[in-house]
Specification:
little secondary structure, Zinc-ribbon domain-containing protein, two-stranded antiparallel sheet, 72 residues, rod-shaped
Length: 72
């Protein structure tokens, strides 16, 4: 089975009026609103990158001093 979308949409959608705009435009030709910087596609310029690897765990602390015999 193939679950790919039927078509790939590269155009930007205007957040104000919903008009489909060319990806190279910065303002909507219909209403003049500012368009988003990227389409959000992975690998596109300006798209968010994957998070970095987590840091290494800290070293364990020193063990507690032993108690005197007979004390709890």
């Amino acid at each position: 089975m193939c679950f790919r979308p039927a078509a790939v949409e590269l155009n930007k959608k205007c957040p104000a009026c919903g008009h489909s705009c060319e990806p190279n435009l910065t303002t909507c030709p219909e209403c003049g609103a500012e368009l988003p910087a990227t389409s959000g596609a992975p690998g596109a310029p300006g798209a968010p990158t994957a998070p970095g690897a987590p840091g290494a765990p800290a070293a364990p602390g020193a063990p507690a001093a032993p108690k005197a015999p007979g004390q709890n």
